[in-house]
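User: Okay, second chain of the day. Same drill as before: sequence in, structure tokens out.
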Amino acid sequence: MFSPTDWIRLFMSALLILPIVTVIRESGYYLAVTLLKGENKNLIIGSGPTLFKIPTIEVRRYFFMFSWMEYDGVKPSNRTWHGIIYAAPILTTAIFAFVANALVLEGVLPANIFWSTFIFYCFYYMLFDVIPVYLPDGQPTNGRAIFDLMWHGERSDYKKQRLEREAKEEEQHEEEERSRTEAQEETMENRDRDDQERGDHTTPETEESDDTKRSYTEAQEETKENRDRDEKERGDHTDPES
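Assistant: Same drill. Structure tokens below.
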């Protein structure tokens, strides 16, 4: 059950602590990319409509739900430096969490709702970043980005583009195979239809040839009968002379 204190913690977390922790986390990206002279950098905090925008930083209305750092390249450009960029937000939130926790334990900071919730969300973001998974929107966590970089040797966004390109090429190949198969089936159907049409035209000719052959045989038989009759008549005429 929610007590009045819990409601205070909820609204304070959503409206104050989460934005602060988000900015701390994203500042790790921004600082690393800036130190490594990243080109076309753009820090996006939140999602939804743009709340306000300054050069290289954009804050959106739903600031506690999403964040992303965009950049084209760094100098020097290799896996180690890109890995540092992905690890920067994890290290930043971890440093703030451990320092704040130590200060609370030492009594420098008061052990109240604000600091306990702040430390909780810092550790939450750090744990969330370390898990090597892809989010539902296709974006990798920093842990996954580091894994792709070290294991596959490429940035996650490049890997995503490559996988999308390979999937598109495979889809085009399957479409070409289907087109060829359909063309082959159509050719076979046309061939069968042509064979049937030729068969329909040749059947009467076959029958006609059979009739011709049959008529020719009857004529031969009639000629033979006439020849036999003539020979018989000639025989009848020659007998009296004998």
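The first helix runs from residue 4 to 35.

User: Thanks, on to the next one.
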